[in-house]
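Title: Prediction job returns without error message
Component: structure pipeline
Severity: low
Priority: P3
Assignee: unassigned

Description:
Job completed but the reporter wants confirmation the result is attached to the right record. Sequence as submitted:
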Amino acid sequence: MKKLLLILMLLFLFPLVAASQKQKPPKHHISIGILDSKTGFSAVGYSRSILQNKNNELFIGFGTMLALNTVVAGYKKYLFRAFVDGYSVISVQNIFGMSGDSDAVCLSIGLEKKIWKVFFINAGGNIHVVEEADLLDGDFLAFPYLNINIRF
């Protein structure tokens, strides 16, 4: 499973690196709310863009719900830009906390709207494929999310 995740991440990296000739300075994102598109199971999350251009972003981050924490690496692709922006996110996550350790792949699709200067509101849905050490097959979990995102 981990080799498959690595291969999928590399397939998404090559187009991003090729398209990011004019790299903007790294951006910081803080999300506060009910789950998140990037950090998954978190009420408060932080992510930093490593590479980005107008429609693509490669990021790393972490999030917390106090009893459950995530460490994340992923790719965000804007599907359309309009009054409301649509995007999809694929990420690899390590989830740890009081319930134990597990690895997950998360696919998110959502909408975002700029509310004021550095404040955005995000809403959408997450699908997690969670692989735990003591289970042979993964669990599929689907959750909606709604949060405020602060970017600087």
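Comment from assignee: result matches the submitted record. The chain has a mean pLDDT of 84.
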